[in-house]
Amino acid sequence: MTKPTGRPRGGARQPKIEERHIKLKLYVPHQGQWRLHNSPARFRIACCGRRWGKTVGCVNEVAKFAWENPGDETTNVSWWCAPTYNQSLKAMNLMANNFKDAIKNVRRAVGQMQIHWKNGSITAFQSTERYDNLRGEGVAFMVLDEAAMMPRAAWQEVLRPMLADTMGRCLMISTPRGKNWFYVMYQRGMDADQADYESFSFPTISSPYI
In sequence order, which ranges of the chain are alpha helices (DSSP H)? Predict the structure, then answer.
């Protein structure tokens, strides 16, 4: 995918010529991952078995979003949220190792884990352990990793409002954990009257690599 050459949104700086022609080599999704990526729903909820490939798929989708949407610290910000910093760190390392040529720098300090892309876009990696500390920032694209393990209040009171003024999109992925708030969101995505939501169920055996 070739980085756009037009003026970035929000008046961000114009990237250098050499940066415009950097290409990201994304992964080749299996059939289930293609279904998830191709959904136009604003809120996608995917209940997946272990080792299905949800983390790899979402890491590639976040990288694609960041590279196609130049910006700065106030525009086109993407977030990866997980129940713990260690889980977010694994996703950040996977992204950093696979897209080195497009990355300006990586910050790994707890509470400030970020990838700064050469086009000005920023991807932050967060933990919902102390979700009240996450308030205040608008986010354009968000992944909730192992969402079923997060507190309901983290989504309802903090993360969901961050998508309001940006009309941001969210991809929730998780292994199931009973009938909690993630289950409620999954049921919403199964309702044909909820056009902004779409749910998916992918058992481990549906991955061709298992």
Answer: 17-20, 31-38, 54-68, 85-98, 152-153, 160-162, 181-189
Exposure string for 49-74, b = 16+ CB within 10 A, e = fewer: beebbbbebbbbbbbbbbbebbbbee
User: Do residues 35 and 200 lie in contact, with contact meaning Cβ atoms separated by under 8 Å?
Assistant: yes
Angstrom distance (rounded) from CA 75 to CA 13:
12
- pLDDT per residue, tens digit, the chain (210 aa), is 444 444 444 445 555 545 557 888 999 999 999 999 999 999 999 999 988 999 999 999 999 999 999 987 667 799 999 999 999 999 999 999 999 999 999 999 888 899 999 999 999 999 999 999 998 778 999 999 999 999 999 999 999 999 999 999 999 999 988 889 999 999 999 999 999 999 999 998 888 887
* Bridge partners for 108 per DSSP: 113
Domains and CATH numbers, the chain: 42-206 (3.40.50.300)
Query: 198 Cβ partners below 8 Å, 6+ apart?
Result: 39, 41, 43, 44, 45, 189
